[in-house]
TrEMBL record:
Official protein name in the record: Flagellar motor switch protein FliM
Higher taxonomy: Bacteria, Bacillati, Bacillota, Bacilli, Bacillales
Any single Gene Ontology cellular-component annotation: plasma membrane
Originating species: Bacillus methanolicus (strain MGA3 / ATCC 53907)
Keyword Cell membrane belongs to the record: yes
Function: One of the proteins that forms a switch complex that is proposed to be located at the base of the basal body. This complex interacts with chemotaxis proteins (such as CheY) in addition to contacting components of the motor that determine the direction of flagellar rotation.
Main localization of the protein described in the UniProt heading: membrane
Molecular function per GO: cytoskeletal motor activity
Lipid bilayer topology: Peripheral membrane protein
């Protein structure tokens, strides 16, 4: 009762019952102190935490963005796909919630056990196929009598689209999706026990002026080996530590192989704009560098070494004599002062 808001008439009735003795105040206090019992339905066993469901939602938000890009390029029309919800329900309830005749793509995801279902609303599927066949993306529903050509076009399209799940799942598992079945009647699917818990990610899908749902059904058996990786704590700490040495090694290797310009300055000079405009072939510009002074060698525009000019195998060369020390920004200035 503490969580309810009573109307004025209910308050008056309660006070009246207490004053006339119809209701005992001590019994009310006793009811409030008793432990509240929460009903638990074993047929709807919640085997995933909210944290894990949020992680799955983030993964499939990335998948939805990849699908949006893929279908936009393939269909050349307005496509928008986004995650609508992520719920854990019994497999039987998922089968009952989808149309009797729909597009069902069943994928294996080795090395994980079990199979994943990608259920596509017929309106969305036919709008996609119409666009690929050169139409405007008109939607119509005749799933009960698909031709072999229509089945092949649809299955190939969704097989290519589901490959992007590999990229979306890369942070938790390295999977290789393989299309194993293409069905239109959910009653023919005998994947797991009806009471087995599944996670259903629903994607809002808009193709041109047609909209519908794409549902991804993932059984618990598929996710069981990677459940620890679905926690935020694991993502932020364990996995980061595991990848850190590898990332550093790759970064070091790329830096070592990077090309940088090496410049040996013979000297510098300052002239006026008028003198610059009057320069002609054969004119000589006097440098402020004496021939007995070492040259300044720059690595990527940053002074790093002192050297002297020479030849190696009849080619011009510069021999490094010393290393400049100090802050990179101050190297050129300190060199100038030391001269």
């Amino acid at each position: 009762m503490s969580g309810e808001i009573l109307s004025q008439s209910e308050i008056d009735a309660l006070l009246s019952a207490l004053s006339t003795g119809e209701m005992n105040a001590d019994e009310l206090k006793k009811e409030q102190t008793e432990k509240k019992v929460k009903v638990y339905d074993f047929k709807r066993a919640l085997r995933f935490s909210k944290d894990q469901i949020r992680s799955l939602t983030r993964i499939h938000e990335n998948f939805a963005r990849l699908l949006t890009t893929f279908f936009s390029a393939q269909l050349r029309t307005y496509v928008q796909i986004s995650v609508a919800s992520a719920d854990q329900i019994p497999f039987e309830e998922f089968i009952r919630s989808i149309p009797k005749m729909t597009i069902l793509n069943v994928f294996e995801v080795p090395p994980l056990d079990g199979r994943i279902i990608m259920e596509v609303n017929p309106n969305v599927a036919y709008a996609m196929m119409d666009r690929m066949m050169g139409g405007r993306g008109t939607s119509f529903n005749k799933v009960d009598n698909l031709t072999e050509i229509e089945e092949k076009i649809m299955s190939t399209t969704f097989e290519r689209a589901f490959e992007y799940l590999q990229e979306a799942w890369a942070s938790v598992a390295d999977i290789d999706p393989i299309l194993t079945e293409f069905e239109v009647n959910p009653q023919f699917l005998q994947m797991i026990s009806p009471n087995e818990t599944v996670v259903v990610i629903s994607l809002n899908t808009t193709i041109g002026e047609t909209s519908g749902m794409i549902n991804i059904c993932i059984p618990h058996i598929v996710l069981e080996p990677i459940i620890p990786k679905l926690s935020v704590h694991y993502w932020m700490q364990t996995e980061k530590k595991d990848r850190e040495p590898v990332e550093i090694a790759v970064l070091e290797k790329r830096i070592q192989n990077a090309d940088v310009p090496v410049i040996a300055e013979l000297g510098t000079s300052e002239i006026s704009i008028q003198e610059f405009l009057m320069l002609d072939v054969g004119d000589v510009i006097e440098l402020n560098q004496a021939i007995d002074q070492p040259l300044l060698i720059k690595i990527g525009e940053i002074p790093k070494f002192l050297g002297q000019p020479g030849k190696v195998n009849k080619k011009l060369a510069v021999q490094v004599l010393d290393t400049l020390k100090g802050e990179d920004d101050d190297n050129e200035r300190s060199y100038a002062l030391s001269r």
